[in-house]
Each structure stands twice: as structure tokens, then as C-alpha cells.
Amino acid sequence: MASERGRKPDRDEPGYSSIAGFTDPIDPLHREAMRKGAARRAQARRLAAEDEQEPLHDHPRRPRRTRMQRFRRLVLALFIVFFCVPALLFFAVYWSADIPEPGEVAVEQPAIIYASDGTSVLTKIIPPQGNRVPIPLSDVPIPVRDAVLAAEDRNFYTNPGYSTSGFLRAARDNVLGHDNAGGGSTITQQYVKNAFLSSERTITRKMRELIIAAKMSRQWSKDEILSAYLNTIYYGRGAYGIASAATAYFGKPVPELSLAEGAVLASLIRSPSILDPETHGDQLRTRWEYVLNGMVEMGVLAPGDRDATIFPAIIPASDVPTDTTQLGPEGLVRAQVLAELRAAGFTDTDINTGGLQITTTIDLAAQNGAQAAVRGSTAWQPAELRSAVVSIDPRSGAVRAYYGGEDGLGFDFAQAPLQAGSSFKVFALIAAVRQGIPITRNLDSSPIKDRNTTITNVGNESCGQCSMAEALKRSLNTSFYRLTMTMGDGPNAIASAAHDAGIPEYIPGLDYETLTEAGAPPLNGIVLGQYEVRAIDMASAYATIAADGVYHQPYFVQKVTTSYGEVLLDRGIPEERVGRQPDGPDQRITSGVARAATQAMLPIAAYSNGHALADGRPSAAKTGTTQLGDTKFNKDAWMIGFTPSLSTAVWVGTENPQPLKNGRGADIYGSGLPSDIWKQTMDAALAGTPIEQFDVAPLPEPTPPPAPSRGFDIFNPPTTRRTQPPMIIIPPPPTMPFAPSQPDESPPPTEPSQQEEWFPGIGGNGGR
Which stretches make up the Penicillin-binding protein transpeptidase domain (predicted)? Predict the structure, then answer.
């Protein structure tokens, strides 16, 4: 068996197989088939393995594209980039563009400020590009219209609103960086650029301009577009719109323009600065001839008329009419109106583009009277003198006259923080009456000591012991200083009375609360007007007294309407009011207290060098003067007074600290130049109006002082006669930006006083 197992089978023997693994004899054909099957299976396994690895080098390469295929792909890409994408953008911008109606386009134009009569122009608010005055197209002569078309767009009435060739030229110039990039615009495109877009030179802006112009041409008529264009475009010399241009170059309204003059204006549109008639007259004439030739080509001008047309005379730039109201006192009124409009919620866009018609509270008679009074009274005075005048209606708070200086673009002295001097004694009287002290109470006017210093009156004037009303008339510092010291919390009581009357707690220019020592409680010197207030504040505070203690917030703007008649603000009768209203009325001081103050003030105007109002018209008033540092000179002088219908404050001073002298070299007091201006202003404003009486009883005749008694009276302490008054040096104020008050309103006596005065916390003599 063993030998048989190790023996190789004979080729001729048939093969065999067994379960044990022995090979049975196999047919040769069958063997060959098995071999081929094994080979196929091996190849399949190899291919499967190769598919799993996916070697790139075994894949077949793509065939190279032909030149025609590459060309077709390039054309397709260019078509998408330069046609499909712009088309999509065009339709997107076209449908998203919101084109307003012709009358709704906001363009800068002047806002007109009127006096209270609603017809007299006081001044204007001119935005940077807003001196345009829109006019209808019917006011523009047809030859002038044709000249503009010949200069800027000869196919205006037939083109679709845009120029494709012009756009392509602009795109080319932008790509190449040419200086004239952006030209070739139609009139519609020029208007769109000025009214809706910027002036940047980019393809994007040019494309938006073209798209909006196309849409506008479908929504607006050609005449509407031309009218808007003529009223918007810049012509040079600061003139926007054809109405302003006609005035700037020919001094006439648009309907009076001739063909030749219209051609000049049309010539200027392309380059106003380059074609300025005073510096580039030859270039302007050449352009003018081009415009006339274009009119001939358009068939709107006969060749014979063209030859007969002569270049017109242009007025010099120095002769161009200017709005002087912006440079005069009315300019300061404009500043107050602007501030009030913004406080009422008006934006700069509202003000600059609304063509607003603003009716103010300014009464023309009062305003002209104030200006004439200042100019007439100061004509022969030193040039350094400055004045402020503010008049307010006590019944409403309406500002009837406002003068802060001659320079409408300069400093406003009606808004300057200044010391009020003895005019502040009125608030001490109100504080005293509030505490139950009547104006008939006798006060001692002898010198008084406070903190080892002595307070006296200018010229050592004294009434002995006289009523509070009499002391107010004579403006006795000692009486009111003593009153302040003996009242309950006197300085704060006076400050409260002044605040209630209308002195604001905070004013521009001060970093702390008014009527305080830089935020600390006020000192006794408050009664002599050592703290800063403004002229408009004093006019308002005295107006509260005139109105029996009812405060009304001062305001300038009465009514505001747009150019098309919409009312934006109205402060008239209650049932017609629109927009934000001023504060008030507010009964801040009881009528009895206010009338007591009025009663005490009634004789002062006549007492102050005879400044009673004309025709015996009753008035209540108070003067005031402040001192220049530690000198014996004055620096501020006041007169403030009222009737039942008008309260006026007048200040006279200088721009820089210096002695306040008149044209004769004499000191100026409140009873002098300020009272002159006050009386003239009041007389002018009230001329022809009913003479109104105050609802107060006349003051009783002064009574002699009571007989001395052994009791001690804090208002009338016993006095001892000094053989020689002490000499006190007046130091300058350590921190105050303005010098303190001057003691007395009356001119100094012929013989100079031997006593100098210094009030604690004042740094100078109290004002009178």
C-alpha cells in the first residue's frame, strides 16, 4: 500500500479523487477547464483589488478640448459676466428704486423767518446749498429753456432719460482713469445725481444714475423733470436754482431774462467755476456761442436771430444783492429760532429741505424800536460799548423784541452771563414779603458790619429809617443787606424767589447752578446782584411779576408751515395748537406778593432821571449797576421794567472788562444810558396801544421813623456815630469770571467819598 501511495500516477491512467484528498483520475478536458477557471478567478480577484485602490494613473486621460470648444466657453462666460449679471442688477435696482412724486423731492431751500404779522421778513435760514427759490416752469421763458437744452441735452424730449453711449464712455474713462470720467449725462441723469445720489465718479454710481433716470422718465413728465432740474442745478456765485442765478448774474427775476442772458446761464451749468465771467470771460463767451449754435441746429433759433444776438452785460460779483439780515441783529434772532426748532423736534433735514415758513413772536414795532434806541443812544458813545435788549409779553412769554448785538454771526450779549447789580433787590423784596415783612416796614439805612467789614451806600447816602419800598426806590444797599441778614435763610430765600420768577437754575456758560457760590450756598451779596444772570432771564423774571406771579416760558416761534401749507407747529389758541408747546402758565409767586413788588417799583422809572413812559403810562422798574473789580469804576449798567403787557430788560457794558464811560468820559449808571434805551424801546413798542393800569394800590406816603424805645429792633438797630469811617480795600474776586456789583445807582457826589466798601463774598461794592 505504501509503495502505491508514493508512486506517481501514470499519465495514461485516469484520475480519481476521494474524500481523503486523494486525486482520482480526471479527464484531460476537464482538467484544462479547471485550469482556465482558476485563471479567470485569479484575474477577477486582481481586478477587484485594483478597483478598491483606484490608482489615478490607471484611468484613461480625457481628450483635449478643441480651440472652438474653448472659444465657446469664453464667450459664454463673458455673456454671463457682462450681460446676465448687469441685467439682473438692472432689474433689481429698477424695481427697488422708489421714485417720489415731483413735489415730494426734498431739496435744500431757504426757510423764511417772519415777524409776528406773518408777512414781514426778518431773516432767512440758508442751508449750504439752499439759496434756491423754486419757481414753476411757466415762469421760465421758452428761449431760456431751449438754451439749456442746447447746452446740456438736445434730445431731452425724445430720449428715454439716459444715454447708453454716455454710460459706456464714462465706464471707459473710469477704467482708464481719465479726469473727465462721468460725463455724457442727460438732463434727467444730472438731476438724479444732484437730487438722489452723490457726485462720486464710479461705475456703480453711474449705473444707479442711469437706472433711476430710466424709471423716472416713465413716471415723470419731461416738463416736470426740466422744472426740477432748473430749480436744482448750481450756476456759480453761490446760486442754486435758476431764480437765484438770474439775481446773481443779472439782478432780475427769471421771467425778465432775455435769450442772450438765458444762454449765459445755460453755458455756466457745465463748469461754473471754470467759466466765471470775471476770471474766464473768453471761455464763457466761447461756450455761449456753442449754445446759440446748438439752438440753430435744434431749429429753435433762426440763423439771422443768432447773428443778431449780442453777449449781455453781467453785473459784477461785488454788486450781487446780499441778504444783510443774516449779518445784522436779526441773525441772532435766527440763532434762537433754530435752537427752539431743534428743541421742538425739528431735524436739520426738516429745516433745510422743508421750505419752512416760520412766524415768530417778534413784534416789528418793538424790534425796530429796540434797534433804533440802541443805535441812536450809542451813536456818539465810545465804540467799545455793547448793549442787549429783550422784551417779553408777560401774558404769554412771547419774545417781542430781541437785540444781542449788531453782529448777527457774532457773540450774543442777550445770552451772556452778567451781574445784575441792584436790579436783584426786587427778589429780596419778594422773599421778604413771602416771610410776612410788608413793604411799608421801616429799614435802617445806616452802615452795617458783616464779618468785620462795613457796608455803606455810594456817597454815604442815607434815608435814616425808611420803608422797604423807599429803600428800593433809592437803591440803598445797607437797607437791603440788613434785610437779607435778618430774614430767615436770607440768601437762599432770595435765590428761591429769583428762580421762581424765571431765573433758570442752569444757563450755558456756567458749570454750576446759578445764584450759588460755584455750587455752594449763596452769600449775602446775592441781594446786591453779585451772581450772573442773562438779559433774557431778567426780562422773563420781571414779566412774571407783571403777570401777578404767573410764569410763562419765553419762546420765539409762533407757527411753522411747510412750503406746501402743512402746519408743523402752532402755538396759537389752544384748540388749534400743533406740536410741542412751551411750559406754563405756572403760578409760582402768589398774586399778592407780586403786586406788592409791583407797587414798590412803580415810582422808580420817573425817579431815575425822569424816565417815565410817554402819555403817563404806568410802569414798574428797577435799575442796576455793577463795579469793575477793585476799582471805583462801573462795568455793567441795567434798566429793567414792565407794564402789564410788556417787560423789557436793557444791559449796557463792554466786551472786555474796562471802565464803563460815556462819550463825555463820565461813568454810566443804570439810570442813564440803559434807561434811555429802555424808555425809547417801550414807548415805540407800546405806541398806539391802550394805556393799562396795574391792579395795585398806590404807595402810602412815607411815615417818620418810630420813636426810639428800649427794645431792640433787628430792622432798625441803634446806631452810633462814627467820627471817621474805616478804610477798606476792595480785592478782586478770586474765582468769579465777572466782576461783582457796584453799590449805588446814583451818580457819585462832587466830593469823592472817603469810604471804600467791600461786601463779604462779593469782592466789590453791591450794585444799585
Answer: 388-654
